[in-house]
Design a protein that fits this description.
This protein is α+β, with helices and mostly antiparallel strands and 205 residues long. It has six helices and 13 strands. The longest helix has 17 residues.
Length: 205
Amino acid sequence: MENEVSTQPKRRITPEEYLEIERKAERRSEYLDGEMFLMSGASLEHTRINRNITVELGLQLRGSNCEIFAIDLRTKVSPTGLYTYPDIAAVCGEPQCEDEHGDTLLNPILIIEVLSTSTESYDRGKKFAHYRTLTTLKEYVLVSQYECRVEKFTLTENGVWSYTDCAEPSGLVELTSIGCHLSLARVYDKVDFERAKRRLEQKKS
């Protein structure tokens, strides 16, 4: 007897079910339209870059009304229903959370993503499209882990996202939304681009 192919539609879970599962899970997952999507682990270079940015901005924000949150704080894009984990999110003023658990941020003013081959097209395309629906978001920053390059999208007063990039090892990227800057020399401290590229080639082979 031949195996029958199930025609039953895949059961979609509610946001409440996702949050219940996610809060008990060992690995993080995104959520959209009733489905959970397991997130991949970070490389050594990715982790170093994320740490460097977190330390650098944390020092600059001491005494201000802005603060940063790294990696494990979930963000909900309320207009589209996406739950995700930005590498770094910043808030000025009081952080707004979805519920009493305090683990789902609603009002980031700045989001930073460290690019990887598995997520770059998503971070540049569909994910940024989700992020752009956040009324609080003013800047979106993409950081390469394979070369010295930081790209920035800034929401202008007329509602258009402008683009700038910096690839100078001694360069600075101004983050006007939080009154800080990123020094590329500090962003890439101890980062080995050659090792990152070798790992990339290994994945391709």
